[in-house]
Amino acid sequence: MKKIYSLLCAFVAMLCASTASASDVVTSVGTAVTDIAQLTEGTKVLFYQNSFGGYLKENSSNGLDLTADIELGAIASGDYIWTVSHVQNTGDGVSLWLTSNRGNHIATFTDYNDGYSRYRTTTGAEAGTYTITPDASGADLFNIGDVNGVYFNGQAGPKFVGWNDAGGNSCYKIYIPEIEDKTSVTVTISCFNMADYEQIKVETALHAPGTVLSMPAIEHYSFVMGMDPSGDMFEEPTYTVTEDDPQELSVYYEQWPYITVNCVDEQGNPLRDSYSFYAEKGSKLQLPDMGLGYELVDEKYADYTITADEVITLVYRQAENPFPFETTTIVDGNFAEGTKFYLMRVADYYAYAPEDEAQAKVSTEYDAEDDAYLWAFTGNINDGVTIYNKAKGTAMSLYAANSGNATPLEMQSNESNKTTFDIKVNTNGGFCIIYHGTDNVSISRFGGQQNVDLKFWASGASLSDANCNFTFVNLDDLKAEEEAARLRAYKQYLHTEGCVGGYTADQLAAMKTAVEAEDLDACAAAAEGLALEETIAFDATKSYYVYSAYPGFFEAQPEANIAIYASAGDSVVWGASKADDDHYKWVFNAVSDTTYLISNVANHKYIAGWRHSAGTTLGATHNCALLEGVIPVQEKESDNEICRIGERAPFQMIKSETLPAAFYLIHQYGGSIVTMSCVQAATVDNALTGGPIKTYNTQNNNNVPNAWRLKAAGDATAIGSIEAEGENGQSAAIYDLSGRRVQKAQKGFYIVGGKKVIVK
């Protein structure tokens, strides 16, 4: 009897401990709805916003979001499932309720009115009635509107909103997904303030056993430690879900220091209103923008680390020269002796005063011998500055009739038409020239494009606009700037050591000495000497590191050696290279004298054709994409067939005309040319440390990291004979280095199963 009682207790305990449940998860988006008759009582669907490409989901706050992708097979994919009920035929459509996987209904839209986003809705107990009708365009698109005529819509992001028109961004695709039950457990994460143990947040969600959870991010708090259901502490902000249900985690956070900043002059007078904020412990103090005219007295705050709550008083003094140029004076109708004149550069254009007209203009080039391109300044920070042109002399200055938008800037007599200007910082790294006494009426290469006239742009956006971003360059400073650019160009030779088309250490010795001495004449002589040297040849029997030749990376990250590698998920990505890591090593299999199939040494897979949005081709609007990744070799029906998505892609290696020993890796798809690049944007953050390889036609754009250097990483694998097996035990296909399939390998190099081998 005692034994039976013990077994019963054990059984009850087992039941109590094993309470994991099943949850609906999406394993495939399934098939698109083509007829509203497919929407019957109980049908489970997915909604896809067609313009911006996002699936509709219920978030943890009972709001509605659009996200670009669904993590198929994950418990969280259930948040995208919607069940239709109360289905009624309306003649041209169906009316119904929409219920989330959590049992909440989508409510009727309410007025939200935040600019473009006019309506919002949430999920809850009260259901709104929605009518689904086919869109007038056809193409299996639908409009989903409530009883007030507000429709499911979307914005860039993507972002879910309501809008009172059908069609356009109100077009949705509806999918009937493939769904399966998956074991799930309830995990509750309770977040506490470490200082007083007050609860600040709680999250409850279903997760599959084995899921690694990241602890919630809480504004103005940092994770300290957590406690799992067994009472053990964990110091990393992650937790692996077990099969026990439910699971309760206690997580502890430290609130960020609260900082108050006062800005005063040396007499203690306030220069601006005090302000307060939370800052992460260990972060650097961000100094306020005090504008021109002030400099910080106590330099310790220029690089100050925040450690605790603090009231910080920043003391400023009037700067001796608050402007990005030196002002001058007018003496007896002439510029004072020693007056410094400047080029005014805006968006790579140079301001000048034409000889025979009043309108001030810009040119793509300047003439150092032409005084019309040289400008001088008088005035001060309080009263503003007057702008003179050297060719026009002191009797004329830059003038604007008023501060209205598009008012032209002209050279006029000082007697009655004198205009003064303020100088403010432009967020692009230069300065705005602003009509004195206004906040943002800025001199601009008005309208951009091919415009050459200087006019006012009266807009707050001018403070961050490139066509209002002026720099002031003294000719002596410009010479120094040009010399620095020449030196940076010569430094590029030092990165060619051991690279294809590059040089040995001995060959580069003279250039290295000249660069270290910053001797431009010696650098030029060394470059002439290198032009006579034999460069390192490409060797098909070698594997290669593919290093970025982008100068910006070398300047910002001199030790990084940015390179292409194959990720664990078989994507083609870039980051700082790791020595002797086969994922960074690539084999170039010749298709022609300049064209190669590129395979990875670690997984013996080839870089494939480009991936594009579903249903699109590489064309005018979709010629930017990620690489699909590295894949096993696939047969082509014809050697003349254009490489399709998913097939190994041939790359043409074209030598750069501007960077030594550097090459573009170019792939042609459907008549369009794309170039492998770290990023495609015209403006590159040189401090970037990694990311996906981008594809875009950047061949002739030297402002993006699209040029590469090849450095030998090792020899091909040597074997005595070929007896490799392919899939399912079948013999692997054998190719020569030209990519042609052969029946039998003779002596030499071959590709077998995606791996380079040698038959001795």
Describe this protein with a few key phrases.
about 750 residues; mainly beta; Trefoil (Acidic Fibroblast Growth Factor, subunit A); Ubiquitin-like (UB roll); 6 domains; globular; disordered N terminus
Structural notes for this entry:
The protein is mainly β and 760 residues long. It has six domains: 21-180, Trefoil (Acidic Fibroblast Growth Factor, subunit A), CATH 2.80.10.50; 258-318, Ubiquitin-like (UB roll) (Roll), CATH 3.10.20; 330-468, Trefoil (Trefoil (Acidic Fibroblast Growth Factor, subunit A)), CATH 2.80.10; 478-530, no CATH class; 542-714, Trefoil (Trefoil (Acidic Fibroblast Growth Factor, subunit A)), CATH 2.80.10.50; 717-759, no CATH class. The strands form 16 sheets. Strands 1, 2, 3, 4, 5, 6, 11, 12, 15, 16, 18, 19 and 21 form a 13-stranded mixed beta sheet that branches. Strand 57 (748-752) and strand 58 (755-759) form a beta hairpin. Helix 2 (475-491) packs parallel to helix 4 (520-530) and helix 3 (509-516) packs antiparallel against helix 4. The chain is globular, with a radius of gyration of 34 Å. The chain starts with a helix and ends with a strand. Residues 1-18, 611-624, 633-645 and 718-731 have low confidence and may be disordered.
